[in-house]
Amino acid sequence: MSAELAECAHGTRVASEAEIARRFGVGRAAARAAVQELERRFVVRRTQGSGTFVNRRIDYVISRSVPPSWSATIAAAGATPRALVKSVRTIPLPAELADRFERPAGSPVHEVVREFYIDDLLASWVHEWIPVAEVPHLDLALHAVDSVDQVLRQTGRVRPMRAWCRVSIDVPPAEVLRVLRMESSQPAWLVESVSRDEAIGDVLMCSRTWTRADAVRVVVELDDRRAVADVAVTPQRVVRPQ
To answer: What start-end ranges are recorded for coiled-coil regions in this protein (predicted)?
Structure first.
């Protein structure tokens, strides 16, 4: 069965457990166990309320030498990215993010909530925080360009670089499970990240992303960029020349 599925196009609906049981002359329990094993190997994926489908899992590379752009990273892996903005609002910087931003809690930041799609599969639920000073009219910019990285480069005239990242895998909270249409026992990647301006070290963005583990394999590359690393850990805030 696994060999047959390997020849099917990504997104092809997989036969039901009853159909598999009849075809191979086994009981429903054996058919269910076979599908679960294929899911465990990421050969197929289940989407709550839709069914089971042939899966294609791509590498999502995290590296200082790779721009912190979801769209560019997914496109480089050979898939089609799409972002859907759910909300953009200006809020006081939450206290738990103040240290990462190297700014006082309460400073004005944009909070962006987005859904990310890979080949039309809703794969990620994303929260991003960007200082208002970097892009005052971010909500308008995101109507024209769906990449925050590109908006920062074009509007803020900066060069975002991933400076800090923490990757873990866990069962997401109920809200994320609902949004991503995942079963309550399915794990997902949690990627928390900080991006800085490569030139002068200002923190440009913090993000928290939940991504379906059956959609991507997160690959962290530790490259040796000592000069950039030194900028990334500079504790003081640098004032950008006007």
So the answer is: none
